[in-house]
Request: fold
Amino acid sequence: MVADILNGKKRAQEILDILSDNSSHNRTMKLASIVVGNDKQSQYFSDLKLKKAHEIGLSGIKKSFPESFDPRKVVTYIHELNDDRNIIGIVPQLPLPPQFDRASVLKTIHPFKDIDCLHPKNLGLLLEGSYTFISPVVLAIMEQIVLSKKYESKTIPYLNTSIELPDLTGIPICIVGTGLLVGKPLTAFLLNQGATITVIDEHTPNPFEHTQKADIVVTGTNASDVLTADAITDGTVVIDVGNDINAELFLSKEIFLSTNPGGVGPLTVSYLLFNAIHSIIAS
Reply:
């Protein structure tokens, strides 16, 4: 048997096509991307988000600051974006340089323009289950699980529309990593969905004991080779968010595999724009 590859890229384009139909009259509405420093990956993802925004009928602006820039001036710029009624989403690229207080920058973004769900208020609402926005990464991971067709699906209301989620009630899930972008919001969301969650990191003794017992394993560490093939049992849904595993090692296993690239990444961009478009319609 071979792994069943979950095609996130194809599904992401389907979502963008639907969003394009909903946003063709919103060219005056803009997505604002902020990049601090010269990290090539940050620049790439910023450009990609704005490119996809333009494809579905939104305008975009990108503001790049040098790594040595005064953090207070970045905060001032975010306040200007908050006051601009044509700006529907403000997306800072993480990580920020060391001299930046990440929390101070993120909480400056107006919660209704925080389509990445990074503002403390939106994270708190996600934790209690009465969210304004759901993290695009979380939505992307849920989409990949739906694509596995391993679980029954359910529909929940979200913004002015509805979304399809897998029914994960009681399902054992292991999350590898505790970061702000993946581990923390995903754990909060899945707990509210009734899943049984185990979170492991580099301090966890015998980590593969947990992954071997899980129906779903999600990695989000931005490290490398965090799993070996024998850490996963047949039938498991394995979702690599942080480019954490060598996919070649898993292709011969009877699992559902979301690889990086081509899996969660394209879907995350699509759901970021999903949040933007539906926040306009809902307002």
